[in-house]
Design goal:
With about 375 residues, the protein is an alpha+beta fold. Helix content is about 25%, strand content about 25%. It has nine helices and 17 strands.
Length: about 375
């Protein structure tokens, strides 16, 4: 089995940790070892099982893994995360509107809106793309017998918008899966990242694996000690005062690949809450600038990432298929705001430029 297929199927290695329990410690709770604390709150739990879960990094306190001797404190958020679903993962068909940009008897291409989860998990068992696919299409194949993911050959994050190809037959599923595994598909993304990316084009290479402290985040391991090989090629499309619009071409398809890679080189995606891009990372200390950024965050209330282009070989005709999705309205609005800000900065009066030169630049 190739690595990309393993990424899709063995989601416990990537982004498939299911929340089984979530407990907020009461204000009056005295200091108590977490294994003892959970024993009396989780039905049929043994101290040994709890200790083993902690050893495996599956017990989080305030989003960080802890050991079984950790003493709980009032207000702690405790989560027990496991790689198996907390209940039978039966997918329910739901009449959710889809933007289907192409369809024939073998495949469909969907332009996913931001905010839609691709498949059930992590507390999202309804309202996902998979729920919608099951309603709109009959008898879609699934790549895994254990995890029902009808039609899915690849995926994008909840708050990433853009194109996905759906397999409608087993033949299409197998053919497309092999293309993704062999890296012969064409996938281009547009992203807005913090700061001025130095090179006009370049390549980011570094193994990607789960972060050692924040289990909901992926990290880059340059020495290859953990994670899986990942390569992202990029080129600059447009520069603004304190952010850059980049085009990314994926050579591999790891979880959060673009988000983790750009954070690693010091340019987190704009408004990417999970990777630190939801605060001001570059710019001036002027209150007017801070308000401008707040308005930008409201205009694009998610990481500024869009799966713009998708190309592959049709599984039965052998034809080269290529699709392009225009930037969604929130990213268009965001870019317009940055263009206006940058143009106004360029055409500022000389006194304003002098003030700006003396303003503190944020490192």
């Amino acid at each position: 089995m190739t690595e990309d297929l393993e990424d899709f199927l063995q989601e416990e290695d990537d982004n498939k940790l299911y929340e089984h329990f979530s407990i907020t410690v009461d204000k009056g709770q005295s200091a108590l070892r977490i294994d003892k604390f959970l024993m009396v709150r989780i039905e049929n739990a043994t101290r040994n099982k709890i200790q083993q879960a902690a050893e495996n990094g599956n017990i989080l306190v305030n989003n960080e893994p802890i050991k079984s001797n950790y003493k709980v404190k009032p207000g702690d958020l405790i989560q027990v995360m496991l790689s198996t679903p907390p209940r039978e993962n039966d997918v329910i068909a739901e009449n959710i509107p889809l933007n289907i940009v192409y369809e024939d008897d073998q495949i469909a291409v969907v332009d996913k809106a931001p905010g839609m989860v691709v498949h059930p998990g992590h507390g999202n068992y309804t309202g996902t793309l998979v729920n919608a696919l099951k309603y709109h299409f009959d008898n879609l194949p699934s790549m895994s017998a254990e995890l029902e993911r009808p039609g899915l050959v690849h995926r994008i994050d909840k708050d990433t918008s853009g194109l996905l190809v759906i397999a409608k037959t087993e033949q299409a599923m197998n053919h497309l899966a092999l293309q993704f595994a062999a890296h012969t598909t064409d996938r281009l993304y547009n992203a807005v990242v913090w700061g001025s990316v130095e090179q006009e084009q370049g390549t980011i290479t570094g193994h990607i694996g789960r972060h050692v402290k924040d289990r909901m985040q992926m990290a880059v391991f340059e020495d290859g000690s953990e994670g899986k090989h990942a390569v992202t090629h990029y080129r600059i499309l447009e520069r603004f005062s304190y952010v850059t619009l980049v085009e990314c071409k994926l050579e591999t398809g790891r979880t959060h690949q673009i988000r983790a890679h750009f954070k690693h080189i010091g340019h987190p995606l704009f408004n990417d809450e999970r990777y630190g891009g939801e605060r001001i990372l570059k710019g001036t200390t002027f209150s007017k600038y801070k308000q401008f950024i707040e308005n930008c965050f409201k205009a694009c209330p998610r990481q500024a990432l869009h799966a713009r282009t998708l190309g592959f070989i049709h599984p039965t005709t052998g034809e080269k298929m290529s699709f392009e999705s225009p930037l969604p309205a929130d990213m268009v609005d965001l870019l317009d705001r940055w263009r206006n800000y940058t143009q106004n900065s360029i055409h500022a009066t000389e006194p304003e430029k002098k003030i700006d030169r003396h303003a503190k630049e944020m490192e």
